[in-house]
Structures are given as structure tokens and as C-alpha cells.
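quick q for whoever's on today - can somebody do inverse folding on this one?? i tried earlier but teh output was garbage lol. C-alpha cells:
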């Protein structure tokens, strides 16, 4: 047996994060970027466009996951999440065209974060 075996089987210094916590962190980071980019939009409109694109990428990934037949979420929840993906795509275009603000996108992301945290609809 190698002297490295005890190291390989030692307990990790940092516990593995759950998928929910990783999803939460992604939503939190992107939501904060949306807020920051919105505040600076007059000086850095391309930064706002990048933040919107990153938010849309997150939602596209989520939509692809809920559209997968093997997804374990209840059908009603999958449908609602897919609808939110479509809404965020449409609303993001309105924001880019300077016809809307980001409040709806932030509210949706924040609601998802509450759900991932287990708060349900509280808030």
C-alpha cells in the first residue's frame, strides 16, 4: 500500500456543495451582476448586455434541463420554469431595447433563489 493512501481517503477539508447550493450561488451572482450593470448602464451599456446574456444563458440551461424527459421535477413546476425562461428571454430583449427595466428579472431570480433555499414563497 502506498504512503499516499491515507491522504487519498482523508476527509475533505471543504465539504462538497449540493447542486441546489451551486444553483443558488449562480442565481445570486448573476442577479447581483444585473443590478450592478443596470446602475452603470449609462456609462457601460455593453456591461448590461453581457449581464443580460449571462442571465439568459443560465435560464437557457435551466430550460434545457426541465425539458429533458428524465427530469424528476413535477410536470407543473417544469412548465412554470419553462414559461419563466420564455418570459426572461422576451423581457431581456425589452431591456436591451431600453423599453423596460430589470426589476422583473431580478424578482424572478430572487424568487427562484428563495425556492432553492427552501423558503418557498416567503420573503
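ok took a stab at it. sequence:
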Amino acid at each position: 500500500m502506498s504512503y499516499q493512501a491515507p491522504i487519498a481517503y482523508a476527509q475533505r477539508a471543504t465539504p462538497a456543495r449540493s447542486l441546489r447550493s451551486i444553483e443558488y450561488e449562480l442565481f445570486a451572482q448573476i442577479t447581483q451582476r444585473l443590478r450592478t450593470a443596470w446602475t452603470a448602464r449609462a456609462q457601460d451599456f455593453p456591461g448590461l448586455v453581457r449581464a443580460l446574456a449571462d442571465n439568459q444563458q443560465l435560464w437557457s440551461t435551466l430550460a434545457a434541463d426541465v425539458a429533458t424527459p428524465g427530469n424528476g421535477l413535477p410536470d407543473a413546476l417544469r412548465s412554470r420554469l419553462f414559461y419563466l425562461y420564455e418570459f426572461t428571454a422576451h423581457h431581456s430583449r425589452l431591456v436591451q431595447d431600453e423599453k423596460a427595466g430589470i426589476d422583473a428579472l431580478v424578482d424572478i431570480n430572487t424568487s427562484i433563489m428563495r425556492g432553492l433555499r427552501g423558503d418557498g414563497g416567503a420573503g
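fwiw Residues 45-67 form the longest helix (23 residues). also The two ends are 54 Å apart (CA to CA). so keep that in mind when u check it
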